[in-house]
Amino acid sequence: MRLVISLLAAALCAGSAGADTGLEAEDLAAAATLRDQALRGSQAWAVVESLTTEVGPRLAGTPADARAVAWAEAKFKALGFDRVYLEPVTFPAWIRGHERAEVLAPFPQPLVVTALGGSVGTGAAPLEAEVVEFADLAALSAAPDGSLAGKIAYVSNRMVRFKDGRGYGPAVGARSNGAVEAAKKGAAAILIRSIGTSSDRFAHTGVMRYVADVPRIPAAALSNPDADLLSHMLGRGQPVRLRLDIAAETRGEYTSHNVIGEIRGRELPDEVVTIGGHLDSWDLGTGAIDDASGVGITMAAGALIGAMDRAPRRTVRVIAYANEEQGLYGGKAYAAARAAADEVGAHQLGAESDFGAGRVYALRAGVADAAWPVIEQIGEVLAPLGVEVERGVGSPGPDVGPIVALGAPWAQLAQDGTDYFDYHHTANDTLDKVDAKALDQQAAAYAVLAYLAAETTVDFGQLPVKPASP
To answer: Residue 402: inside a domain, yes or no?
Structure first.
């Protein structure tokens, strides 16, 4: 067996010959063993099943949020993490009530809608108004001031499907900013085509925002088939009148928690490598792909490292972030706490799983040039998983973003998200969409990344600090 391990280590070292990676042959062999162990069966699926079954939907600021925090704390302890603790995260608590829509004329029909997160309601009575269609947010923004007085704006732009999800960015502005633009034109409410790629009759929710000095109007998303239906009606050239009935409100502030589990480093415990996912979900489904999968993948990866005979040199910290969905509150609170404690520099590398349950296909990173050979060597251990190293592309995860803005380096294990936006933020985000073997592949990738990043003697450096947003 020793000869087999030595040969494996030599093969892994060959691709990085001459590069200073701060990793020994035995480290690479241990990482390969960790990878193969995960592929034979990690605990990732069992964690996802537990969270979606025992807690289910976890809308931030609700009693289910508190149950999720208690679940995560108990699960970290059950998985054998050395240290488990909570950090408070405070945010506005938005509550969904009922949501209904129907066409009144000229072709009466019910519509499938969902209120967007943060939206106000329609008040004591339903809102009835004529609908005006816009091809995209830019067209709405270009409408004359006052032209939508008393009407419902409808933005019909369609998201395009891509493996890496890049169709999301161009489409999501309608959800994020549509209510503000419509209100500037005098609209009484806004409807958008769901920001998603499915043809199922499920509406996709997601957070929207208001700004000061602009009236707050109700905002909702139509399922893609219902958006098509509404566009067909409008295309006949007759006025379309619609009734919208939404009960939703923000009820003060709520304090939840980031839940953190650590495998303490044997030599440099104050230097950390972080992996994680967000604990909250929207309330329509059970949040299986968004983001119980990310929580399960990274918890399982951390548990695999914790079960090794020898802990890595640095600490591996797994974070179940609070309230990502409504504004990255968990990631922002985590970064702010590290900045206040002057601990940003202790973060060697941060990565996050928040793109569903598809297999990992690429390793990307934002690190100092001197640390890039380490990334390449990690890539060599990941290659049997079908993972390629891609330099000069990628980005940190949403909850890792705030600490990266303060200068912390990052890595990305890019997942196949071809079907991610079919289920994202819908009632169809349920456990049956999750494949256990795909989760094992991802847990293997995260375990290798976290272990070798924590084991190397190379410093990953600090990135330029980004200026704060106005």
So the answer is: yes
Separation between Cα atoms, residue 289 and residue 430, nearest integer Å: 7
Q: In the prediction, which pLDDT does 10 show?
A: 46
The number of helices, as runs of H, and strands, as runs of E, in the chain is 13, 14
Q: CA angle, corner 37, sides to 33 and 42, nearest 5?
A: 145
* 3-state secondary structure at position 268: strand
Element (H, E) at 128: strand 127-134
Write down the pTM of the prediction.
Answer: 0.93
Q: What is the CATH number of the domain that holds 144?
A: 3.50.30.30
Domain match, 440 and 369 both? yes
Burial 83-109 (b: 16+ CB within 10 A, else e): ebebeebebbbbebeebbbebeeeeee
Task: Answer whether 16's CB lies under 8 Å from 376's CB.
Answer: yes
pLDDT at residue 468, rounded to an integer: 65
Cβ 78 vs Cβ 259: under 8 Å: no
Question: Which one from 133, 181, 262, 324 is the annotated catalytic residue?
Answer: 324
β-sheet bridge partners, residue 110: 102
Domain boundary among 198, 220, 251: 251
Co-location of 212 and 108 in the same domain: yes
Residues 270, 341 within the same domain: yes
* Structure confidence at residue 3 (pLDDT): 36
Residue 27 belongs to some domain of the structure: yes
Region class of 394: left (phi > 0), else alpha (psi between -120 and 50), else beta: left
- The tokens for 394 are 């990628």
**262 catalytic per annotation:** no
What is the pLDDT at residue 469? Answer: 57
Dihedral of the CA atoms 200, 239, 145, 170 (nearest 10)?
20
Residue 314 token pair: 């640095």
Evaluate whether residue 327 is within a structural domain.
yes
Q: List per-block mean pLDDT (blocks of 10 residues) for the chain, which spans 470 residues.
A: 42 54 95 97 97 98 98 98 98 96 98 98 96 98 96 97 95 97 98 97 97 97 98 97 97 97 97 98 98 98 97 98 98 98 96 97 97 97 98 95 97 97 97 97 98 97 78
Could you tell me if 32 and 108 lie in one domain? no
Cα 303 from Cα 29, distance rounded (Å): 18
The CATH code of the domain that includes 314 is 3.40.630.10
Does residue 466 lie in a domain region? no
